Amino acid sequence: MKNFLLLMMFAGCGVTAIAQTPQTQQRVLTEQMIQARKGVAPKALPDGFNPLQMDMRLSRATIENLVKQNKTANNTTSKRLETLKNQAKRQVRRAGETVDTVQCYSVAQSYFSGYSFTSEGGDVLAYNIGVAVDGTKVTFTNFFNLYDPTSYSPAHDYPFTGTYDPEKKTITVPTKSKFAEATICGDFYGYYPAVLMSGTVGDDQKLIPDNELVFHVEGDFERITTDQAVCAYMFTADGSQSYGVQEAYKQLYIQKPTDKPYIVALGNELKFGNTFVSYPVSKTFYLANLGGAETDYAIETESDGDSYSVDPVAGTIKAQSLQTIDVTL
Prior knowledge:
The protein is mainly beta. 13% of the residues lie in helices and 43% in strands. The chain is built from three helices and 23 strands. Strands 3-6-7-9-10-14-15-17 form an eight-stranded antiparallel barrel. The protein has a four-stranded antiparallel sheet with strand order 2-1-20-22, with no helix packed on it. A hairpin with a 4-residue loop joins strand 9 (160-165) and strand 10 (170-174). It is globular and about 60 Å long.
């Protein structure tokens, strides 16, 4: 296996990223996903289900079936969610009365590609996250962009707040996994709370939870990032059972509106594994221009014997847009 050093040079800014080549991780479909593909809807949580196990994400068929059961078996669910929704509306109204909410262009890389977990990082998402700063209180809205108007039972984002430390330049949000102390960041299917969680994803694909999510602030809230995994977990309304992760971010950038370009790389830790001569392997990462002006970029590679090729090697990225980059071994 060979190491690949990728040097990226942009007009107005520079980024260096290193892609490593350990053995490619194997992903295995859970029994529930296999059943879902066959059109069989399981009626209970799978044996040995661990909600912290990222690669045990429940299939959509499993979750929808569980939701149907609980809608008829537990009417208190909707009452509890209605209370949470009203609290969220009041929180948004209070934030709007004191300070403006700034719509920030945001780019995130999920730990999921489609519905499958991948430790390398999967889908890249771009949308606006609202940020309202009121002294040391920072309120986030539309954090996971959960709402899908085409869904029969759409999910919703709720605002949540963190505490800004001007000396450390950090925003801290509680993310305790105990439901009674959890930060509710939305709902799924209009019935089940979405709980904000953070931590580190271990080599065993299990989330090691942290009690706090820490954001790093650049300048005058020009950019907000975090080094932690950020997740939305689905719970029953009474908190007695977690149905596991529904969304999880490996990388996240929240950019305050600016008239200058700013480029970041997402998914640039590439794992090629082993391959045979004359059997090329290709991987893709993304460049994101978070800023408000287009910019040029150029990529240089350093590898043994020019083993890697990059396409495209240069180009222009429009404001607030993504560019895919293919790397071939």
